[in-house]
Amino acid sequence: MIDIPFGGWRKIVGDEFESEFLDLEYLRKKSEHVQPSLRRPSVRKLTTPDGRQYKLLYVPSGNARIREMLRIIKPIQGEAFIPRMLWADDHSLLLEFIEGDFPKVSSEKFSRDLGEVMARLHQYRFSPISKIRYRLEYRHNLKSLVRHKLLDVQQARKARQLYAVLEPPVLQRSLDYFDIARNNFVYDQQGALRLIDVGAFRRNRMMGQFFVGTSHFNELNTDAFWEAYLASTQNHYIYQHLGYLRLFHYVMKAGQRARSFASSADKTTLEAQRHWQRCTEMKDRLLALLDANS
User: Fold this and answer.
1) In whole angstroms, what is the distance from residue 142 CA to residue 251 CA?
2) CATH architecture label of 10-96
3) Measured between alpha carbons, how far is 27 from 270 in angstroms, rounded to an integer?
4) CATH of 108-292, one of 1.10.3470, 3.90.1200, 3.90.1150, 3.40.1000
5) What digits encode the pLDDT tens for the residues 60-75?
6) What is the pTM of this model?
7) Is 195 helix (H, G, I), strand (E, B) or coil?
8) Residue 101 carries which DSSP code?
């Protein structure tokens, strides 16, 4: 038994099961000051006496993360690359638990398989988004980096100029997947690649922005990835505008983390230090991109 309220998912699982946390690293890092409404769902593996296995995501009252996940994954439930959804309400999401092997991120096979899957995912597109909105967001984040002395005025000017050069004629948006860490994928027992972290899907942002900006993207065999991706879709948006997507993403993430660090009451907490580490990582990537385009 586990310490969460009764939910409709128990009609499927039953009342007798073993529970195992699957996200122990997050539980160790979670600060007490993080409000329940902002926390990620707890993730547990449930195993019944007859051997059935499930994955349960649970959030406390007032947390909208499960509802957002549902808005994203419901339209793609017919796709073989995501877990089957078995039950959902405002607090819990019950999924099939997929047995399999984690991939080697740098391998040619994984890179090709991921290219095919991402091409399929990016077919779930929405109407184009406002270029004005993204320009304003970009400038706001640049100002944050200058204000917090992560960029000087000349570097910020270069970043604005590069944005004007790289900005696409139209900003496409689609579903996206932002975390290429190896434990977010498995090869199932049939050898098919599955994207198992439903919390890593994103919507209503630029196509490919989160994906190519992830810290693990360059660990892929990028030649194999792009060959498979481009062969699987006629829309080559993210390949053609890779520089722009990375530029926007690095500035956005660095600006967000800089503000989060600055607003931390205690700069020595683990949470504050993680904000600073991610901020400086994104800032360094931004500077490398500016140098490469100077």
Assistant:
1) 6
2) 2-Layer Sandwich (3.30)
3) 13
4) 3.90.1200
5) 766 788 888 888 999 9
6) 0.87
7) strand
8) B
